[in-house]
Amino acid sequence: MKFVFATNNQHKLNEVREIVGEWAEIVSLSDIDCHDDIPETSDTLEGNALQKARYIKEHYGWDCFADDTGLEVEALNNAPGVYSARYAGPGHDSEANMRKLLAEMEGKENRKARFRTVIALLVDGKEYIFEGIVQGTIIREKRGNGGFGYDPIFQPDGFTETFAEMGEEAKNRVSHRARAVRRLIDFLSTYVPSV
Ligand code: IMP
Protein backbone atom coordinates (compact mmCIF):
# COMPACT_ATOMS: atom_id res chain seq x y z
CA MET A 1 0.00 0.00 0.00
CA LYS A 2 1.10 3.55 -0.61
CA PHE A 3 0.00 6.71 1.19
CA VAL A 4 0.85 10.37 1.11
CA PHE A 5 1.69 11.66 4.56
CA ALA A 6 0.99 15.40 4.34
CA THR A 7 4.26 16.56 5.85
CA ASN A 8 7.81 17.48 4.93
CA ASN A 9 9.04 17.25 8.51
CA GLN A 10 11.84 14.68 8.25
CA HIS A 11 11.66 13.81 11.97
CA LYS A 12 7.97 12.97 11.67
CA LEU A 13 8.48 11.03 8.45
CA ASN A 14 11.22 8.95 10.04
CA GLU A 15 9.10 8.31 13.11
CA VAL A 16 6.07 7.27 11.11
CA ARG A 17 8.06 5.15 8.62
CA GLU A 18 9.75 3.41 11.55
CA ILE A 19 6.37 2.61 13.13
CA VAL A 20 4.75 1.52 9.87
CA GLY A 21 7.78 -0.61 8.91
CA GLU A 22 7.44 -2.75 5.80
CA TRP A 23 3.70 -2.62 6.00
CA ALA A 24 3.16 0.35 3.67
CA GLU A 25 5.12 2.89 1.65
CA ILE A 26 4.79 6.40 3.03
CA VAL A 27 5.57 9.25 0.67
CA SER A 28 6.00 12.88 1.67
CA LEU A 29 4.69 16.08 0.14
CA SER A 30 7.94 16.72 -1.73
CA ASP A 31 7.76 13.16 -3.11
CA ILE A 32 4.51 14.17 -4.87
CA ASP A 33 6.02 17.53 -5.85
CA CYS A 34 3.81 19.50 -3.50
CA HIS A 35 5.64 22.57 -2.22
CA ASP A 36 2.54 24.54 -1.25
CA ASP A 37 2.09 26.31 2.03
CA ILE A 38 -0.93 24.24 3.07
CA PRO A 39 -3.36 26.28 5.16
CA GLU A 40 -3.75 25.34 8.84
CA THR A 41 -6.24 27.89 10.04
CA SER A 42 -8.45 25.89 12.38
CA ASP A 43 -8.45 26.41 16.14
CA THR A 44 -8.52 22.67 16.79
CA LEU A 45 -6.06 19.86 16.05
CA GLU A 46 -8.85 17.87 14.38
CA GLY A 47 -9.74 20.81 12.14
CA ASN A 48 -6.16 21.36 11.02
CA ALA A 49 -5.50 17.69 10.31
CA LEU A 50 -8.67 17.49 8.19
CA GLN A 51 -7.88 20.75 6.42
CA LYS A 52 -4.44 19.46 5.34
CA ALA A 53 -5.71 16.05 4.21
CA ARG A 54 -8.59 17.62 2.26
CA TYR A 55 -6.20 20.04 0.56
CA ILE A 56 -4.03 17.20 -0.75
CA LYS A 57 -7.00 15.23 -1.97
CA GLU A 58 -8.51 18.27 -3.67
CA HIS A 59 -5.32 19.61 -5.31
CA TYR A 60 -3.33 16.42 -5.93
CA GLY A 61 -5.96 13.69 -6.00
CA TRP A 62 -4.24 11.39 -3.53
CA ASP A 63 -5.80 9.55 -0.64
CA CYS A 64 -3.68 10.60 2.25
CA PHE A 65 -3.33 11.26 5.93
CA ALA A 66 -2.31 14.37 7.80
CA ASP A 67 -1.52 14.99 11.44
CA ASP A 68 -1.60 17.83 13.85
CA THR A 69 -0.07 17.76 17.30
CA GLY A 70 -0.26 19.98 20.30
CA LEU A 71 1.32 20.09 23.73
CA GLU A 72 -1.49 20.61 26.24
CA VAL A 73 -0.35 21.89 29.64
CA GLU A 74 -2.90 21.51 32.41
CA ALA A 75 -1.89 24.59 34.44
CA LEU A 76 -2.08 26.73 31.29
CA ASN A 77 -5.62 25.68 30.35
CA ASN A 78 -4.21 23.31 27.72
CA ALA A 79 -2.02 25.94 26.04
CA PRO A 80 -0.06 26.00 23.80
CA GLY A 81 -2.25 23.26 22.24
CA VAL A 82 -3.04 23.88 18.60
CA TYR A 83 -0.64 26.88 18.69
CA SER A 84 2.37 24.81 19.83
CA ALA A 85 4.47 25.48 16.71
CA ARG A 86 4.14 29.27 17.00
CA TYR A 87 3.77 29.71 20.76
CA ALA A 88 6.53 32.33 20.95
CA GLY A 89 5.16 34.11 17.87
CA PRO A 90 5.47 33.65 14.12
CA GLY A 91 8.95 32.88 12.86
CA HIS A 92 10.15 31.65 16.25
CA ASP A 93 11.84 28.31 16.75
CA SER A 94 11.61 25.51 19.31
CA GLU A 95 14.16 27.18 21.59
CA ALA A 96 12.00 30.31 21.85
CA ASN A 97 8.85 28.20 22.34
CA MET A 98 10.46 26.25 25.18
CA ARG A 99 11.78 29.45 26.80
CA LYS A 100 8.30 30.93 26.73
CA LEU A 101 6.70 27.79 28.14
CA LEU A 102 9.23 27.53 30.98
CA ALA A 103 8.63 31.21 31.79
CA GLU A 104 4.84 30.69 31.86
CA MET A 105 5.33 27.69 34.15
CA GLU A 106 7.43 29.56 36.71
CA GLY A 107 5.96 29.16 40.18
CA LYS A 108 3.40 26.55 39.00
CA GLU A 109 3.26 23.39 41.08
CA ASN A 110 1.07 21.46 38.65
CA ARG A 111 3.40 20.54 35.78
CA LYS A 112 1.20 17.89 34.18
CA ALA A 113 1.03 17.98 30.39
CA ARG A 114 0.18 15.77 27.48
CA PHE A 115 1.06 15.57 23.83
CA ARG A 116 -1.97 14.91 21.68
CA THR A 117 -1.78 13.89 18.02
CA VAL A 118 -4.76 13.81 15.73
CA ILE A 119 -4.51 12.04 12.39
CA ALA A 120 -7.09 12.62 9.66
CA LEU A 121 -7.28 9.93 7.00
CA LEU A 122 -8.98 10.42 3.67
CA VAL A 123 -9.61 7.20 1.83
CA ASP A 124 -12.23 6.28 -0.77
CA GLY A 125 -14.04 9.59 -0.22
CA LYS A 126 -14.48 9.05 3.52
CA GLU A 127 -12.83 10.80 6.46
CA TYR A 128 -11.57 9.13 9.63
CA ILE A 129 -9.94 10.56 12.75
CA PHE A 130 -7.42 8.82 15.05
CA GLU A 131 -6.00 10.18 18.29
CA GLY A 132 -2.90 9.40 20.32
CA ILE A 133 -2.04 10.82 23.73
CA VAL A 134 0.99 10.58 25.99
CA GLN A 135 0.83 12.01 29.50
CA GLY A 136 3.86 13.51 31.18
CA THR A 137 5.48 16.40 33.03
CA ILE A 138 7.08 19.68 32.02
CA ILE A 139 10.48 19.61 33.72
CA ARG A 140 12.19 22.79 34.94
CA GLU A 141 15.25 22.78 32.66
CA LYS A 142 15.95 21.28 29.24
CA ARG A 143 17.60 17.86 29.12
CA GLY A 144 18.80 15.90 26.07
CA ASN A 145 19.69 16.61 22.45
CA GLY A 146 17.49 14.19 20.51
CA GLY A 147 14.02 14.59 19.03
CA PHE A 148 12.58 17.98 18.18
CA GLY A 149 10.13 20.63 19.36
CA TYR A 150 9.41 20.47 23.08
CA ASP A 151 11.14 17.09 23.57
CA PRO A 152 13.89 18.40 25.92
CA ILE A 153 11.35 19.63 28.50
CA PHE A 154 8.80 16.80 28.29
CA GLN A 155 9.21 13.72 30.50
CA PRO A 156 6.64 11.03 29.76
CA ASP A 157 5.00 9.34 32.77
CA GLY A 158 6.82 6.19 33.86
CA PHE A 159 10.22 7.38 32.58
CA THR A 160 13.11 9.27 34.16
CA GLU A 161 14.31 10.63 30.81
CA THR A 162 12.86 13.33 28.60
CA PHE A 163 11.80 12.52 25.03
CA ALA A 164 15.03 14.22 23.93
CA GLU A 165 17.10 11.81 26.06
CA MET A 166 15.25 8.59 25.18
CA GLY A 167 16.37 8.14 21.59
CA GLU A 168 14.10 7.72 18.61
CA GLU A 169 13.34 4.04 19.09
CA ALA A 170 12.23 4.36 22.71
CA LYS A 171 10.24 7.51 21.98
CA ASN A 172 8.49 5.73 19.12
CA ARG A 173 7.28 3.01 21.45
CA VAL A 174 5.30 5.40 23.64
CA SER A 175 4.80 8.67 21.80
CA HIS A 176 1.51 10.38 21.02
CA ARG A 177 2.24 10.12 17.30
CA ALA A 178 3.12 6.41 17.59
CA ARG A 179 -0.17 5.76 19.38
CA ALA A 180 -2.18 7.63 16.76
CA VAL A 181 -0.29 5.93 13.90
CA ARG A 182 -0.88 2.50 15.42
CA ARG A 183 -4.59 3.23 15.48
CA LEU A 184 -4.38 4.29 11.86
CA ILE A 185 -2.56 1.07 10.94
CA ASP A 186 -5.00 -1.09 12.91
CA PHE A 187 -7.81 0.52 10.98
CA LEU A 188 -6.15 0.18 7.57
CA SER A 189 -5.09 -3.39 8.15
CA THR A 190 -8.74 -4.44 8.35
CA TYR A 191 -9.95 -1.94 5.79
CA VAL A 192 -11.80 -3.24 2.78
CA PRO A 193 -11.68 -0.73 -0.10
CA SER A 194 -15.03 0.10 -1.62
CA VAL A 195 -15.30 -0.50 -5.34
P1 IMP B 1 2.77 19.49 14.31
O1 IMP B 1 1.38 19.89 14.15
O2 IMP B 1 2.95 18.01 14.38
O3 IMP B 1 3.71 20.15 13.33
O4 IMP B 1 3.23 19.97 15.73
C1 IMP B 1 3.10 21.30 16.16
C2 IMP B 1 4.22 21.62 17.12
O5 IMP B 1 4.11 20.77 18.26
C3 IMP B 1 5.62 21.37 16.56
O6 IMP B 1 6.10 22.48 15.90
C4 IMP B 1 6.41 21.08 17.80
O7 IMP B 1 6.79 22.28 18.41
C5 IMP B 1 5.39 20.39 18.69
N1 IMP B 1 5.54 18.92 18.56
C6 IMP B 1 4.84 18.09 17.76
N2 IMP B 1 5.25 16.82 17.92
C7 IMP B 1 6.23 16.86 18.85
C8 IMP B 1 7.05 15.86 19.44
O8 IMP B 1 6.98 14.66 19.15
N3 IMP B 1 7.93 16.30 20.35
C9 IMP B 1 8.05 17.60 20.71
N4 IMP B 1 7.33 18.56 20.18
C10 IMP B 1 6.41 18.20 19.26
UniProtKB/TrEMBL annotation:
Molecular function terms, GO-annotated: dITP diphosphatase activity; ITP diphosphatase activity; metal ion binding; nucleotide binding; ribonucleoside triphosphate phosphatase activity; XTP diphosphatase activity
Q: Which GO terms describe its biological process?
A: nucleotide metabolic process; purine nucleoside triphosphate catabolic process
Class of this enzyme: hydrolase
Kindly state what the record says about how the cofactor is bound.
Binds 1 Mg(2+) ion per subunit.
Does the keyword section mention Manganese? no
EC number assigned by the record:
3.6.1.66
Pfam families listed in its UniProt record: Ham1p_like (PF01725)
Assigned GO CC terms: cytosol
User: Does the record's keyword annotation contain Nucleotide-binding?
Assistant: yes
Instruction: Tell me the residue numbers annotated for binding Mg(2+).
Output: 68
Q: Which residues form the active site?
A: 68 (proton acceptor)
Amino acids binding substrate = 7-12, 69, 148-151, 171, 176-177
**Catalyzed reaction equations:** dITP + H2O = dIMP + diphosphate + H(+); XTP + H2O = XMP + diphosphate + H(+); ITP + H2O = IMP + diphosphate + H(+)
- Provide the function of this protein: Pyrophosphatase that catalyzes the hydrolysis of nucleoside triphosphates to their monophosphate derivatives, with a high preference for the non-canonical purine nucleotides XTP (xanthosine triphosphate), dITP (deoxyinosine triphosphate) and ITP. Seems to function as a house-cleaning enzyme that removes non-canonical purine nucleotides from the nucleotide pool, thus preventing their incorporation into DNA/RNA and avoiding chromosomal lesions.
NCBIfam families, A to Z: PRK14823.1 (NF011398), RdgB/HAM1 family non-canonical purine NTP pyrophosphatase (TIGR00042)
Q: Could you give the subunit structure recorded for this chain?
A: Homodimer.
Q: Which family does it belong to?
A: Belongs to the HAM1 NTPase family.
The name on file for this protein is: dITP/XTP pyrophosphatase
